[in-house]
# Entry
Amino acid sequence: MMARVSDVLGSGKRAEGGRRPVLLVTGSSGLIGSEMCTYFAAEGYEVHGLDNNQRAVFFGPAGDTRWNQARLEREVRGFVHHELDIRDRAGILALVGTLRPSAIVHTAAQPSHDRAAAIPFDDFDTNAVGTLNLLEAARRSCPESPFVHLSTNKVYGDRPNTIRLKELETRWDYDDEAFVEGMPETFPIDQSTHSLLGASKVAADVMVQEYGRYFGMPTCCLRGGCLTGPNHAGVELHGFLSYLVKCNLEGRPYRVFGYKGKQVRDNIHSRDVARFAHEFIRRPRGGEVYNLGGGKANSCSVLEAFRLAEELTGQRQVYTYVEESRIGDHIVYYSDLRKMRQHYPAWNVSRSLHDIISEIVAAWRGRGNP
Ligand SMILES: NC(=O)c1ccc[n+]([C@@H]2O[C@H](COP(=O)([O-])OP(=O)(O)OC[C@H]3O[C@@H](n4cnc5c(N)ncnc54)[C@H](O)[C@@H]3O)[C@@H](O)[C@H]2O)c1
# Structure
């Protein structure tokens, strides 16, 4: 169902009237946004999604998310889609003012490093200014409602690359006791190379923290590692595992950028991201920051991901190697999950890397891949 602001006038009062709580999800047609929609609808929320298929503008037809919007409209009971751009300040103020949601999960973004350099205005206007539009709309209309922001580990810039590393057969790893559990939230975020995407996401991240600290709003930033799952429209510039599996299935060469293919990422299923957002919304805190990833147990190098994909598809992974690494790219990054577990002991990583890749294989096959 598609709705204009005028169609949903007054619905914000529903949560207060003892009826279903209202959730606003931005970027609802994307990987994380769509997972939030299905997850929270099943938890009894009235879910409003906001998306304008900007991913197709950023990445071309391969990034098109209309199929996912259609899936939500088909499968999620009572789902309402709002065709709106988060850069449209007046539109955002009006929608949030009308809905007065019980919680906001903000996932809409320009998510790619490399793309940001080509479209700096679109990148900053979306990631930084779009987030400010939502925060200010929330402050004016529903300051008590938890606000969960999807940030990124790119806020740390390339400073994680200054940690001493050791080279193993198929991966790099930290060679420093302080990081055996992974990257903590206390790691510095400035004075390093971020890419323009990292910089626009830092602006958003700090602003989300500030609305928590300065205005006392229940906000948090989830600094994502590799967030993934079956509903990702993976493209070369964004969506590592999803795109890697797609290449495997199509027999198309995957391009490895530098670090001998031994660069390490931690991977978390979008479902586990939604489960954490739910924990936070149930028991919110103010201006918090969490490194949200699969942790060391769900980490893999590109070479290790090739082997896993091959095992699961039965097809050889073809790849080419580009000597130069991507600007600002991490050599090793996996999240230290101890703060999340300490604040929210009921939460855990429920899907292993093996489970995640099998689901991605099944999903691409379901969408017509060989
Ligand atoms: N997927 C990852 O590996 C990863 C890692 C770290 C952080 N994150 C962060 O998580 C969030 C969600 O990522 P994702 O993987 O679901 O991305 P995605 O590209 O799959 O989804 C984002 C959605 O936002 C929409 N969108 C973009 N700009 C918009 C605008 N101006 N107005 C309205 N809608 C707009 C897009 O059309 C898309 O459907 C982003 O903030 C991203 O930076 C993702």
